Prior knowledge:
The structure is a single chain. This protein is of the alpha/beta class. The protein folds into two domains: 2-180 and 232-262, Rossmann fold (3-Layer(aba) Sandwich); 199-229 and 264-305 and 316-336, UDP-galactose 4-epimerase, domain 1. It has helices spanning 11-22, 38-48, 62-71, 86-91, 93-114, 147-165, 199-207, 235-251, 268-279, 303-309, 317-330, and strands at residues 2-6, 26-31, 53-56, 74-79, 118-124, 170-176, 178-180, 214-217, 229-230, 232-234, 254-260, 266-267, 285-288. The protein has a seven-stranded parallel beta sheet with strand order 3-2-1-4-5-6-11, sandwiched between helices. The chain has a two-stranded parallel sheet with strand order 7-10. A two-stranded parallel ribbon has the order 8-13. Strand 2, helix 2 (38-48) and strand 3 form a beta-alpha-beta unit. The chain is globular, with a radius of gyration of 19 Å. The site of uridine-5'-diphosphate-4-deoxy-4-fluoro-alpha-D-galactose has 22 residues, from helix 7 and strand 8. Residues 6-7, 9-13, 31-36, 58-60, 80-84, 99, 103, 122, 124, 176, 178-179 line the site of nicotinamide-adenine-dinucleotide.
Amino acid sequence: MAILVTGGAGYIGSHTCLELLRSGYDVVSLDNYYNSSPEALKRVMKLAGKELTAYDCDIRDRGGLQKIFSEHAIEVVIHFAGLKAVGESVRIPLAYYENNVAGSVTLLQEMEKAGVHCIVFSSSATVYGDNDPPYVEDMPTGAVTNPYGRTKYIIEEILKDACAANEALSAVLLRYFNPIGADSSGQMGENPNGIPNNLMPYIAQVAVGKLSELQIFGDDYPTPDGTGVRDYIHVSDLGVGHVKAVAYAMEHTGAQAINLGTGKGVSVLELVRAFEKASGVNIPYKIVPRRAGDIPASYADPGKAKELLGFVTQRTVDDMCADTWKWQSGNPDGYKA
Ligand code: NAD
Ligand code: UFG
């Protein structure tokens, strides 16, 4: 029995492949390497001491999907593949709908033809839109402010409809909060193209001297220190959450949305201080105006993940910073080195 991981070479995908191999699963990765490198999968295999099978394939390529489903006894698909840059999605929305939404529909159709009934989908806390945190799974979703977030909302709705129409189907919709950190080996981590959009990779690149200073987007939010608050979750904890979701998907049918977060809010300044402590490096910053579309605070109610999956995060913000620093300082050019 094997698990197909779409987007397996990506940041969260590669850390999840490692946790799946460590848990004894056979793993098949499918990735078009648009935003990743095959080197990530080599490191996964080295760290796990086990092989996985990797396909250079696009989720929109029906023939490629059919080949994979015919060559492996896939029981569950973990579906990470997608485009994820919020700003870019505003500029080229159709590419996001084509890749994320149409690609997911093609994948679901080919799963159906191949008799594969279980999918674990990478959704996002962004679907909660303008609700007040802590976010609970039964809050209304869909008041999303950008095309990227809307693709997540639409794919969730497609999966709910598909489950309503086919009682054999199982879909776990994992709503991630803010994944950061890296495998504790320092061999794997986040490898963004160009200048990072997200806070942690930006801080890490300032720390190694690739960027000169951090810009903090606003210190006038209604939060304890005025800077934005987020629920940062270690990517290796997230990988463990997927292993638990795979087991859940195999035992249950229907669509189930589940938050993966710690439940704790951390401000931008708190994360900067924690990173400075972990790395011993000073992070110069300046306060600039708020970034359009940002919300003051986002954090999970993690109760449902504990109840249904038995999932509780293990790693602290200090761990997240120490592991990011180990990866970034040892691999300043990511997987290119
Ligand atoms: P990533 O870009 O590192 O990984 C995505 C992978 O999918 C990449 O390896 C990319 O090459 C591949 N891919 C993209 N389009 C593809 C296609 N059409 N066919 C085959 N492969 C394709 O991103 P990530 O941070 O690992 O995110 C994984 C998933 O989790 C994404 O769906 C993302 O939207 C979602 N998510 C991420 C975050 C976050 O902050 N990182 C938060 C919430 C949800
Ligand atoms: N921030 C800065 N400076 C930066 C980058 C970010 O001050 O250079 C601040 C933001 O204003 C925010 C916090 O740091 O307050 C976190 O910002 P990120 O860009 O790291 O993360 P977001 O919460 O904005 O968004 C991320 C993903 C989305 C996803 C969302 C919820 O980018 O795709 O988490 O999962 F939808």
